[in-house]
Amino acid sequence: MYGNSKDDLLKALAARRWRVAGALTVAMLVAYLGFILLVAFNRPLMGHQFMPGLSVGIVLGALTILLAWVLTGVYMLWANRKYDRALDDLRR
Amino acid sequence: MNPSTAGTQLGQPNTTAIFFFLLFVGITLAITWWAARKTKTTSEFFAAGGGISAAQNGFALAGDFMSAASFLGIAGLVATSGFDGLIYSVGWLVGWPVVTFLIAEPLRNLGKYTFADVVAYRLKQTPVRLSAAVGTLTVVVFYLIAQMVGAGNLIRLLFGLSYETAVVIVGAVMILYVLFGGMIATTWVQIVKAVLLLGGATALAGAVLYKFGFSPTALFSEAVNRYGPEALAPGKLVSNPLETISLGVALMFGTAGLPHILMRFYTVPDAKAARTSVFYATGLIGFFYLVTFILGFGASVLVGRQAIVGVDKGGNMAAPMLAEVVGGTGFLGFISAVSFATILAVVAGLTLSGAAALSHDLWSSVVRKGHAPEAEQLKVARISSLLLGILAVILGVLFKNQNVAFMVGLAFAIAASANFPALLLSMLWKNFTTKGAVASMLTGSISAVLLIFLSPTVQVELLGNASAIFPLKNPGIVTIPLSFIVGWVVSLLAPEAEASRRFAEVEHRMHVGAVVKPPVTVPTGVAGTVPPGIPEAPQKV
């Protein structure tokens, strides 16, 4: 089994992972609810065409989709580089 | 034939469609034959022996998620009402980051075949697995009904086959995949289907954009010319903001509770592959939805809303009709065959996850208390798949001509309320108890089903009553918090010392994987018997 300090380090690392995961989840939730609330309460803005054929709503919708992918990418990069490396150190 | 299909080959027996469909079935059955020879253990049957790579699983996850409903349904919604379709697309996608951040890795490290492995890890096996199986099977059955009825209707429209014939063909081929090839075959069927669907949809969108000088805004402008600026603005879909938010949270957290999606994380070798695979899947699905948006607008401009609604009131035929307009009968045939293949692959994944709940959670853990020999487990797994496959066909025939569109929403609502809260609490909260988990899962299942029964969808649209007792079509905004609160309160009322003592082990394993400890070091007499949900092979240190 682990010595106490190693256990504590692991606990801290685990807590850090949950914090990062939690923050990213909240970011996604805020972006998505923001989009939904704009759709629900500000139709004129969402329907506004700032150039012919492109409305604010379409751009924000596409950006939300893009953001979802970017956030998973950010998490993956963080986890692969920082988290996994720290975990490997602890395993030794 | 139906007079409203005049001017289109839709619904006529189409040689190209039949050729491509037979080609797909031929290739996938060959894969199944190859997979069957590699499927000798339960682990191979349910989790492909953990031998699927991150990229492969990414495509398979995307394949599991991109149902014909999202391809044809969202394209149709965009075609008939413009912008509103995008609201759905965004909702369907944003669940994926949640799966990545909160679920994928802990699930991979803690479980074996089902999400109940994770919830039951430090709790009492029998009650937890029974209630988890209730949630899983309810989700699977409603999702299967929606897919089978959709399959029957679509194939009737696309190929001109009778409804029953279509349902039986889908059921029979799907049973062959699952029964003989298990997860290995199902995964490869998903991969082939995902590539075909993405390729087909992209080619179709390319053909549309080609006509508009590869400028989406030129396409959108043409839609505005025809149908007014409303095409690019939120429409009547969001008449009730609370409704939209409720649907939104159900979609967001439902993805993180869908049994056939969760199960896929057991097919990869480790947590890193699990997280990487969701990154691929999110990208593929997001791209697919953007492409579908183009297809919808393409159809509304090149085919015309009136013609689309004339063939199918729901607008589901927008994408196939668009294929015929831009690429002729050959392209129509190809897209029709891809849609058929899509349904086949999705029902195969659903059936396999239902079979895992029946054989792994109910038979091996509850009935046999973890003492079923390997050969027996595999046999029960196969029998469960067969039974579920037959059930799917029977349900498909029984629900003919019923409006089942709400059932996918229902499946997501149950997944979000019954499975997701218990799963998250079991991973995050030390003082979560057996009673809390059971109460949370049952509350989630029952309240979601009950509120949907009392909702306008069933009371007004189905039963023809003047009003409904519960005002929202989707109950997520009520049932998800309710399920969390019930799990929390019940756990606080009756603490379970053993469960909170073993949380350290859960926490450790959730992050490190099954590294330090030899396979099973659970003190005897704890939580009934040794949890059967623990992978035997520890990772290399």
Automatic annotation (TrEMBL), chain A:
The keyword Transmembrane helix applies. InterPro entries: DUF485, Inner_membrane_assoc. The chain crosses the membrane at residues 20-41, 53-78. GO terms for cellular component: plasma membrane. It comes from the Bacteria. It holds the Pfam family DUF485. Keywords: Membrane, Transmembrane, Transmembrane helix. PANTHER family: INNER MEMBRANE PROTEIN YJCH. This is DUF485 domain-containing protein. It comes from Corallococcus carmarthensis. The lineage of its organism: Bacteria, Pseudomonadati, Myxococcota, Myxococcia, Myxococcales.
Automatic annotation (TrEMBL), chain B:
One of its GO terms (molecular function) is symporter activity. The chain crosses the membrane at residues 17-36, 57-79, 85-107, 128-146, 158-179, 191-210, 245-266, 278-303, 331-359, 380-399, 405-425, 437-456, 476-494. InterPro entries: Na/Glc_symporter_sf, Na/solute_symporter, Na/solute_symporter_CS, Sodium:Solute_Symporter. CDD domains: SLC5sbd_u4. Pfam families: SSF (PF00474). PROSITE patterns: NA_SOLUT_SYMP_1, NA_SOLUT_SYMP_3. Gene3D superfamilies: Sodium/glucose cotransporter (1.20.1730.10). GO terms for biological process: plasma membrane acetate transport; sodium ion transport. It is a multi-pass membrane protein. This is Cation/acetate symporter ActP.
